[in-house]
Amino acid sequence: MKYFTEEIWDFEGYQNNLLSLKEFLNQETFKFLQENSFHDGMLSNITIHNSYTGETEEIEDSIVSVSAKIKHWNGHIYKLFWDNVTVYHLDFNIARNRAVETNEILFDRGLDEWSHDELTLKNENTFRHEIILFSKTTLVIECAHFSIQSI
């Protein structure tokens, strides 16, 4: 992460970064990212889609995509799509999700709520989306296309 770390919380820098993504995102996605965040949202599912069947012709682009469903803190439901995924990394360990006061593991919280994220452009053809959940779970996805859809 470049804009949001334990040492840095550069909201203005991140907003400038989002402006540079405008031409690469659809209007609904760009507007959501400019006006909202998924902070305190609850990730209900995340799915990795593998289109390869063994009979698939050789494809130049990645045939892996990822989708997720999240309930925003205001109750609205959104679906997130990452297409042509080249990197997918989910680092989850329930032992890291502990109550501050007691240090007890919060088994009943699962992945827990969305803390913060950064969507950046790795190069002109690849987004990098880094997501941190309150359980200290990290999710990193690099892809050609990213979109958010209200459902």
UniProtKB/TrEMBL annotation:
Superkingdom classification of source: Bacteria
The protein, known as: Uncharacterized protein
Species this protein is from: Atopostipes suicloacalis DSM 15692
Taxonomic lineage: Bacteria, Bacillati, Bacillota, Bacilli, Lactobacillales
